[in-house]
Amino acid sequence: MTKDKVNFVIFFSIFFFPLFPSIMVNSQVHINILVFLLSILYLIIYKKSVDFYRDKVVISYYLVLLLLLSVSFIFDIVSLEISIGSGFSYLRPLMLLVITIAAIDAVKNSDFVCKQRLALIVLASTLYVFVELILNSQPYFHELVFYLYKREFRFELLFYAVTFFGTSYYSGYAFLILFFLALINYNKYQTTLFGFLLVVFTALLVLLSQSKSMIFSLFICIYLYAFFKSKSLLLKSILFFFPFALVFLFFINKDVISNLLISTELRSLKSLDTLLMNTSNSGTLNVRFEQIISAFNSAYEKSIFFGSGLGRDESLESLPAVYFFRYGLLSIFFHYFVVFFIVVFSFIKMRELRKSDDFIYPLVVFLWAFTLPLTQFSGVMVEMSKLSYMSALMVGYLLKLRGLSAK
Known about the structure:
Layout: H1 3-16, H2 21-24, H3 29-45, H4 56-78, H5 84-90, H6 92-106, H7 115-133, H8 139-148, H9 168-188, H10 193-209, H11 212-229, H12 233-252, H13 254-263, H14 267-277, H15 283-302, H16 319-326, H17 329-352, H18 360-370, H19 372-375, H20 385-400
Helix pairs in contact: 1-3, 3-6, 3-20, 4-6, 6-20, 7-10, 9-10, 9-11, 9-18, 9-20, 11-12, 11-18, 13-14, 15-16, 17-18, 18-20
């Protein structure tokens, strides 16, 4: 079996592996173990191709996080709030490091999720969404969906396409990354109607997740992709002023838009109406901000710079809340500095490769990094479950940029 096939088997296994919510409830610890073990297995098989010197920046990043987390771990030891799970929680940065190094090597010389392989993933996902949303009323399909992936006690998710990831924003983020891979496939391998349709269907899968943050991120990515890919000065000018025109039209037609959103009877669009027209009453947004404030206060009481503890029993979702509590204020500055660096570096590579066939690589990395503050406001998906591996693939494409030059 070739290296590409091995990588695709790993990707396929992680992407579609069941969550078993009736057994695991909200936990995806078995997925974390699966991703880690597959990454370890990959590194054992291909240990000769792994370049740790090349990966030193990534190694440094996770070691800094481990160092910052050590203080929180000590806080938990002193307050006797430790358990067996605390050790695994403390070692999470090392687990993520292993996963990331494996993913970096996987995409180093190959886009293994492309052509027929990408089509297989998209087709299987589309068929499953049809079963999940349309055939869900049939007893057999209902039992299958809720046994494999969907939590039956979360009634609000009944009409959301959570697919193979358990929540709407997890699913939206996963298919947003698949959207990036489809863009690479379309620009590098299948500049055809079929390749374009793969891009369209991955975008539709993001939309069907009905996650507001992921849909907004998708629209930002589509807009920026069109802007940077356009070679016409006139089209670039139109695209430049388009957001301003959109905001203007929104404000002069607020009532019409509000009535339209409410009339759809879709839970997600009603929630969007609340977010746009009456932000203070947006439940999910308020919960996220309350978690951030609570995490900040907890960190302030113990150590504003190093955090308050591992936070295993805390209800924390967004990246700022989790990082404030677990790593402290230093980690917030460190993380967003790294994100800013990735955005700037990928933009510089875009300018360097603007006439190259490889232009799509820095563009995709730019889109991913540019939307990270928005996508990770819903949850720390770069560190969690299946999405840690998919995020690691994007880090792999980031490091791949260093070896690319204008031809």
